[in-house]
Each structure stands twice: as structure tokens, then as C-alpha cells.
Amino acid sequence: MAQRPESPQRELRDATFVVDEGAPCALDRALRAANPGASWNEVRRVVRTGKVTVDGALVTDPTTQVGKGASIALRMAAPRKGGATQLVKSLLVHVDAHVVVVEKPAGIATVPYEDERDTLDRVVQSLLRKTARPGTSVAPLGVVQRLDKETSGLLVFARTTAAKRDLQQQLRQHSMHRRYLALANGTVQGGTIRSRLVQDRGDGRRGSTERGDLGREAVTHVKVVERFARATLVECRLETGRTHQIRIHLSESRHPLVGERVYSRGYTDLLTAPRIMLHAAELGFVHPITGAELRFERPMPEDMKRIVERERTWRDG
Q1: Is residue 235 domain-shared with residue 115, that is, in the same domain?
Q2: Is there a single domain that holds both residue 109 and residue 160?
Q3: CATH of the domain at 108
Q4: Is residue 8 part of a domain?
Q5: Are 198 and 206 in contact (CB under 8 A)?
Q6: What is the pLDDT of residues 184-233, one digit of tens each?
Q7: What is the pLDDT of residue 63?
Q8: For 158, which of 10, 177, 181, 211 is 20 to 30 Å away at the CA?
Q9: Which CATH number characterizes residue 61's domain?
Q10: 65 with 194, same domain?
């Protein structure tokens, strides 16, 4: 019996197209719909190697949700996505013998998770070695705080045990200043959100509990910056620093962050973005050795600006 000939695979080529499906879908699915002869492996490979942008922003996660109207560009000649060193080489904000302040790009983990190698702490450590005087040893960095992989913005590492101990104490005493910019779905009201966060709220995800004997207190102060027709740009000042605190508090207030995928279960008609629209815009603390008050600020990154401008155009158009 003759075998059925296999259909030839379609070669991926440079292209730009706009998603016309109604419901959000994964980026790899949108790319394959536009290239029906391409294999799933090839579609995911070009995404992971940095050859695809969504609304002008580089996206390397094939599972990123894209919605109707998103502009997807495939450039096969784009340079292969470099390691984390290339991403953060020029983003050291402050360096002295005791602390290092870094502006973290979105898409890089703060510390290793499972088998990750190109993480922010390792890259910063490598950069410090390269700039150190010959024969000078560079001690491992002390992790004081973390930002989610998709979150951009400022964070501090300690270079000595004494500095780490002091900075952690400032976190515990809520004296470290941290202000975030976030774009959330819907019409957000300003105010203070208080809850007790637990690792499992009953569905395998972190969240709030009504029980006063469980979890840890989390306090987020929310201030409205600008309202749009479909979303609200807000400032979030952290009084505490629990894992995913802003993401959980806004989601449980019925306003998930734009680009949120973990804490958006049960919500419909959410806006899409290549990543979670969250940026650590300000960081302030007392220097652990000199006692000087340090304050750093970094503007909203370009990928987040594009999404904000999209919503501003939607409102004003």
C-alpha cells in the first residue's frame, strides 16, 4: 500500500500581520495560523531566539497572549537574542563597595529558578568582576529583594553581609521606598489595599485569606495617575513586600494588570500585552554604611509606553 506523501513544510519568511481573531491566543498559535505549513517547533524557535516583536516590543515567550489588533512582526535576519549580559550591560545605576542598584529589564529572572543560568544576579556579578581592579576578588551578591521575571525596574543587591543585613532590616521595618507604575484593566479607584496573603488560596495560586491566623499582612497604597477608556495607569507604593503583592491585590480588586496571566482566571475581555505592565519606577533607602539617604528613579520603559499610548489613543480617538 502506497504511503501518503507528507505535506512540505512551509518556510518561515519575514512578515508583518495584525491579529484578527476575537479572543486572545498564544503568540505561537497566532504565528502558526499566519503560517499554516510551519511546524510548531520552528514557530516556537523563532520566538525564543528573538526574531518576533509584538506591537514593536521583542517577545521571547511563545505562550505570551496576543489579542485582536496586535501587530506581529517576524524578522528572520534579526540577531539571535543574546544572553542577559547584553541586556543589562549599561543598566548599572549605582555601584559602590557595599551596594549595587540595577535597572532590571523585563524578561530576565532576578535569581536562578530551576536550571536558569542567565539571571540578573549572575550577570551583575560578572560585570563587577570585569570592572574590578586586577587581583581584586568580588564576593557573591546578597539578594535583598526580587522582581518578577516580567517586571522591569529598580532593585538593589548587597555586596557585603553587613549591607545585606541592614537593607533587609529596612524592608522589615517598611522604611525602604518602593513606587511602581502599573497599567490595570478597568476603572481603578485609589486607596489602600490590605489583606493577608497565603501561598495557596485554594486553587494552587497565591492569594488573600480571611483568616487572621494564616498568611502574612500585605499593604499596597494605590494612586490613580491617568484613566483610559479600558484601563487605568496607577502608582502602587509598597508598605510590605510579599511575592506578587501588587498583581494579587489588583486582581482581587477586579482589576488584573494588563498582560496578567496567572491571576486573571475567571476574567473576560481583558486587554493583552507582551508582558505584565508593571515597572519599579522608584527605589529609596538609607545607605547601610554611610547613612546617606539614596533615591533613584527610572522612567517607564518603551514597551510599556507603547501599551499606555495605545490606550490613550483608544480613549482620545
Answers
A1: yes
A2: yes
A3: 3.30.2350.10
A4: no
A5: yes
A6: 999 999 999 999 999 988 888 899 999 988 999 999 999 999 999 999 99
A7: 83
A8: 181
A9: 3.10.290.10
A10: no
Is residue 136 domain-shared with residue 279, that is, in the same domain?
Answer: yes
In terms of residue numbers, what domain contains 165? 84-316
Q: Which of 148, 213, 269, 303 is catalytic?
A: 148
Is residue 93 within 8 Å of 38, Cβ to Cβ?
A: no
pLDDT at 118: 75
Is residue 118 part of the annotated active site? The answer reads no
The model's pLDDT over 262-305, given as tens digits with 9 standing for 90+, comes to 999 889 889 989 899 999 999 999 999 999 999 999 999 999 99
Residue type, 180: Y
116 contact partners, CB below 8 Å, separation of at least 6: 109
What 3-7 contacts at long range (C-beta under 8 Å, 24+ apart), as own/partner pairs, is 7/37
* pLDDT tens sequence across 103-118: 999 888 898 776 666 7
State how many domains the chain has: 2
CA distance 3 to 151: 51
